[in-house]
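Technical annex, item 7. During the second reporting period the consortium partners agreed on a shared format for inverse folding records so that results from different sites could be compared directly. Each record opens with the tokenized structure and is followed by the designed sequence. A conforming record, contributed by the partner at site C, is shown below for reference.
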């Protein structure tokens, strides 16, 4: 994009273009997965989630409850499949609960 072409794009298009160029092509897709976490697991589990980070094909989730960690550990394959639906390609390979 040249400077004179900027007025032909929406702000959202410019932000997506910037993220792809500066962080890599998967950055936007990774952010979609991180933002989808509360929708996939529901409000109760989301309220017990301390941190969600996507790194290297894995989602690292920090929880404040050992019992929830155990329950989610047993459902991690289903969670991976559901979260990958939010991205345009299946980039999430595994989930680590801490």
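Designed sequence (site C submission):
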């Amino acid at each position: 994009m040249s400077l004179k072409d900027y007025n032909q794009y929406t702000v959202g298009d410019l932000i997506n273009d910037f993220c792809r160029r500066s962080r890599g092509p998967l950055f936007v897709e990774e952010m979609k997965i991180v933002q989808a976490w509360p929708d996939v697991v529901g409000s109760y589990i989301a309220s017990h989630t301390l941190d969600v980070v996507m790194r290297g094909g894995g989602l690292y989730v920090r929880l404040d409850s050992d019992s929830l960690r155990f329950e989610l550990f047993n459902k991690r394959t289903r969670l991976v499949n559901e979260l990958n639906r939010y991205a345009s390609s299946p980039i999430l390979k595994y989930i680590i609960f801490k």
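DSSP finds five helices and three strands in the chain. The first strand starts at residue 49 and ends at 55. All partners now use this format for quarterly exchanges.
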